[in-house]
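Q: I'm building a small set of examples for a reading group on sequence design. Run inverse folding on the following structure and report the sequence directly after it, with nothing in between.
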């Protein structure tokens, strides 16, 4: 039996490091995005309160990923609601600040000469692919949505 050994690693990380050189997929067995406006508003208010109180770190919550230790591709086993909402929030920041750097956290620009495709940071549920493609992954998308 040739089985790849499993490993578990728990660590604190910041958003920049979580998103750097990693790509995420919401597996089919995960429940669809169920956060409503109230959930998202609570999430934003909680982050805002943390910033206003001078906290230098904010605990986003546990995000459980499945993947090979040396891979850049991961399935999101737990934390898909928070991670997806974070991507939407980053898109809003990107559009309101017109910030190309934040765009790189959402979409990795490809390099045709190196054979690297442009990749979206998180592959969401099938029913949200079009919405994310148009409004989250495109510069100015959240402004067009409003």
């Amino acid at each position: 039996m040739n089985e790849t050994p499993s490993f578990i690693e728990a660590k604190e990380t910041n958003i920049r490091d979580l998103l750097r050189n990693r790509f995420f997929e919401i597996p089919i067995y995960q429940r669809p995005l169920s956060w409503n406006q109230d959930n998202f508003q609570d999430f934003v208010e909680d982050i805002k309160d943390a910033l206003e109180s001078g906290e230098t770190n904010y605990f986003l919550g546990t995000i459980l990923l499945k993947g090979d230790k040396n891979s850049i591709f991961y399935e999101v086993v737990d934390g898909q609601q928070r991670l997806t909402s974070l991507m939407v929030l980053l898109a809003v920041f990107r559009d309101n600040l017109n910030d190309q750097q934040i765009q790189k956290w959402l979409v990795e620009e490809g390099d045709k000469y190196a054979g690297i495709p442009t990749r979206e940071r998180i592959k969401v549920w099938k029913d949200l692919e079009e919405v994310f493609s148009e409004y989250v992954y495109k510069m100015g998308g959240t402004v067009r949505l409003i």
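The longest strand covers residues 73-78.
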